[in-house]
Fold each of these.
Amino acid sequence: MTHRQWQLLGPEDIALRSFEPVGPKPGELLLRVRAALVCGTDLKVFLNGGHARMLQPPCPFGHELAGTVIAVGATQSSDRRSQSWAVGDEVVIGNSAPCYRCRECARGRENLCADLEYLNGAFADTVLVPERFVRHNCHRRPASLSPKLAALAEPLACALHCRELLLPTLERLSSMDHNVEHDVEVVVFGAGPLGLLLVGLLARDGLSVTSADPNERRLAASRAFGATQTELVVERERVVPPLLEHRGGERFDLAIDATGRASGRSATLEAVRAGGTAVYFSGTLHSPRIALDADRIHYDEISLLGVYHHRPPLMAQALEELDDHQLPFSHLVNETVPLEDLPRALRLMRDRQALKVALDIDGEQVAESSEA
């Protein structure tokens, strides 16, 4: 049977091609994709024609998915983990698999694995899951969780990883402020899906969170996720002065860039108070180089924290969070289109008409959406 798969060929160049799935080999799984999500990283990859770590064209495209096992590779009798999967199982696959042999893996920093492998190809009818992914980053989809929402596990795992790295900073700030009557104050620049997920997690932790974005609809979503304040960004290159003016000149304990733009990087450093932490959460959209105020970093003791990707345990935690429904996750996926309409999905993302777009593979979600 012939299947379809979107390929990234270069900057703003994609093609839907037919292919014959092969395998699965021992230890591998073949999935029918039930739902795949188009995210900001996919848009960035499409515009740039590649990614610094995950892929270089020509290659399969897409990395957020939920699917159904349709074939299981033969296994050795001693391979109990591989044997636990069966045809018909509903699963979510993390898009990376660490080696668990290198120094960083031993330190619990699997996202920094020296031999981290990536899985692309979610924008397709079927996807072959290599043995390392089956062993280390394959998770059962909770029965009560739809494929469309389950595919949010990957970006949510990234937000959980950011929160995890921030915990020592938050504990330090809380211990320093025990005699001061104010909350730990955070600003998140960018109210795309990753920014919104982070707003939700930090607000749920009791922090005072301000969301800054040039799109009023996204700011409304920020409020739904628990933002205490929102700031409509009028000029990308001049974000911080009006924001601080509304606060009487007060900066923030934590400033987080979730825009991936140079302007967001600069605003993050400008908005953080002395002794605070500036966090670079999103990958860069264009040039990765920016100018830094070294004197401010030195004299005001500003900490810079880079955050990248996620770890397999956080994928499992993300599925539990999604199944718990404590945050309004359904707000994030507000468009559904057929697989062949990926170009339209990318346009919706580019024009900020959608936060995330679901690609429906089997027609069930499109029918459901049209009846709503």
Note: The two ends are 33 Å apart (CA to CA).
Amino acid sequence: MANSGKRIQMVDLGGQYLKIKNEIDAAISNVLESCAFINGPQVKQFAAHLAEYLGVKHVIPCANGTDALQISLMALELKPGDEVIVPAFTYVATAEVIGLLGLTPVMVDVDYSTFNTTLKNIEKALTSKTKAIVPVHLFGQSCDMEPILNFAREHSLHVVEDNAQALGAEYTFSNGVKCKTGTMGTIGCTSFFPSKNLGCYGDGGAIMTNDDALAQRLTMIANHGQKVKYHHSVIGCNSRLDTIQAAILDVKLKYLDNYCMARRTAAQYYTSKLQEFDPQQRYFELPQVAPNSTHVYHQYTLKIKGGMRDALKEHLAGHGVPCMVYYPLPLQAQEAFEGIAVAAEKLDIAEKLSESVLSLPIHTELDYETQDFIIERIKEFYSK
């Protein structure tokens, strides 16, 4: 099947922009005309709209997702040497901020099917120094939060959700209550990096909480530790979402559920066609959806069998199909964490995943013709 000469992209930000160009351009123009580039009214407006969408009391915008994690841990007043439990299979930022603050990242393994850490992993990491857990809702679906939250309450631990990849996903508790990811723990953090499900046109992030006092502290820390200008109550940092990005995000937020549905539709098409080709999963394993979470498919990630991941990636690249390895090294293998982090258990699954995962293009503008081309190239590889 021909690809009609179209360039295949991991994420088609240009196509997405063109569909809402008039709204985006008007939003940017309004900021330019007002010249309120820092803390303009659009920042508060977006924060209020995001809080309403998520069903959370407070949203504190900041400069990026990494800052959101750092500010959150600073607000919890953890001390050097305190231990924070983090999955070994995630982006470096999750553990990086822990090390940056002089805390100890305690790495745990993840579930092979969902890529997310579980209570079973977390229980192995508990010590008298444990103060917080950072569950990561990886690739677009929620960790199994109910047992994690119960465990945290039992042991007086903070829960900081890393929701950079799953904004818009929903978790269902055993009593039927549904909550958006990022709203269940002590604090939730997200990123608005351009390729995220809700992405701006630069850097951006946000912090979520239902705790009024904590929200005030988070806001102070993000603004040089001040509540009143030039009166600094705590050591903070300078982390803010600029007004142009807030205006862009406020437009795109209205379309977030549609974006998530488009990704879900693309994922279902991949799964259907690839399952037809490899029903016994001889060549690869398809993404699994947890029973208590929706999936917003920030990534569509296969697990390639037989040590063929890199060869398949090279084959696809040769036919103009980009694909990515998230992540080629688990955190325990990263040089930066030598002498800083500890492993609570053998991290075999994180290591195995790093050797086998391959993410295919998935985005809001992906059409069946393009997906068919990608699928045919995968079939071609295994037919050699």
Note: DSSP finds 13 helices and 15 strands in the chain.
Amino acid sequence: MNNTKKYDLLTIGRSSIDLYSADVGSPFVEISAFNAFVGGCPTNIAVGATRLGLRTAILTGIGNDQVGNFIKNFLEKEKVATAFVPTIEGTRSSAVILGIEPPDKFPLVYYRDNCADIHLDIDHVDSIPFEEFKAAIFSGTAFSKDPSRTAMFYALERAQKNGVTKLLDLDFRADQWSDPRAFGIVIRALLPQFNIVIGTEEEIVAAYLTDINQVSIRHQQISAPEIKGDIDNAIHSIMASGVDTLIVKRGKDGASIFEQGKQEVKVPGFPVEVLNVLGAGDAFAGGFCYGYLNGWDLYKSVRMGNACGAIIVTREGCANFMPTLQEVMDFTGERGGLE
């Protein structure tokens, strides 16, 4: 790995305490106990990338509360650099409560009123030495409200000036926006500024929503019938915006790579028995970033992401369960490798 910069990766956006159902398979209303973990898309990516071997830092906000202490203590134990994690007075650290009903029900409830990470501001971004990073990955939710939205635009400016590779995880959470269509309006304005965009089919379709009835707020995703038929147009529109590379996560079917002037490249996944899909996309991003920032080609980097995602869906939670490099190598070695 090229070590000319102090850090490999900066992740930016939300963090939370995640309370996962201890009663796997029970309906949400019958949950009797929860296990406490750490979560939030950029937080999960930071931990996943660090466990694989990247030198990673995070920019997120925490409140002056015990939940904030819980989150920061975990990150420090994981050796994620927390020098850029401000404690923002007058806010509360975020929380999420999650149910686990495999194979396809994973209800979740966000507690993000006055949450700290959405209060990241321009001064917090100014504290980041972007010249010391190879890459920065932004999450869509960080653009949902001010002051975080403006701070993220400023972070993009600073990353661009310092030659930092800019990645976007679309991270669509419908109920975090004033109107689900607002997600697409903001994302479409952002797309030309990113080198690499990562998202599920649902998230990519969401970037081009015009009909609010297409969105199922309860499940925080696009209803399945609306995906087919729109996804190809949405992919074409994203590539037409000037993005260098789009990676479409397709769950058990692996992922697809789209590059300017090239045909789609399909990258197979790793079949596993699913326990909990939450966090799979974040594990994917951590694995992809590890490969990409080590100079691997896109195919192998995506294959690495697929492997990390496959491992995490067999486990109970997100950040706390991210695989190590040795675990990924053992997993892929048993299944024919990453090529």
Note: The first strand starts at residue 7 and ends at 12.
Amino acid sequence: MNNLPETNNCILELENGWLTICFNRPEKRNALSEDLLLEIKITLESVESDRSIRGILFRGTGGVFCAGADLEGLKKIATSGVNARDLAVEMSTQAGSVFERINKMPQITVSVVEGAAMAGAFGIACATDILITMADARYALTETKIGLTPAQIAPYVINRLGFAQARRLMLLGSSFNGQKAFKMGMADYLATTDNELVEYINKIKEKVRKCAPNAVSITKKILVENHSVNPKKAAELFSDCIVHEEGREGFASFFEKRKPYWNVDK
């Protein structure tokens, strides 16, 4: 059995050749803190070369997949003065490296979305090979609405949804439910009950079991070869938004529960 790392912000379960990484910050709706991102990255690194692990499931505790980036952490960065941009680049690069690693893992990766998949979590869902969604799950690309850009996740959203549809959703900060995600082709499986969700997970595991691990690994390498992203460049673009006056206003309006100045009726 693989020696998995010790984690505090996610629960790891290894059973019958499948690793489940369960985001475990229910008090923050499993938001992607720096510590959680680091634990995901370390966990993936520890199993990358292990062909006895046939697949990796990403889930969230408390009935919520993930609320996206930890906005309290981003707000602190945005208001940290002269070091704000450097800190933002570092944080965004770390997040981007996690999305990239998920996308390039040699094992089959599956997102199981319940509750919500917002912003960065939307990116995780798009970066995995297969997406199972509950019908009432909520998806949102909220970045532009709070003065930010989905730079790190954009390539994965485009790859999964196609350019025209991804462009519309990202520019307009769109939100929709799991049923719509399935209808537009984003989600591969749609579950309306917990039992259906389990059935789909088991069905995928059964299908993966019939495929040779090395063949899967090589095929995935071919698939991602021409769909790479530059996390450093994406981090710089994201960081420019954080330190911009719109980014600071976006965070302020979010926490003060009001509309930002660009969304005030004239």
Note: The longest strand covers residues 10-15.
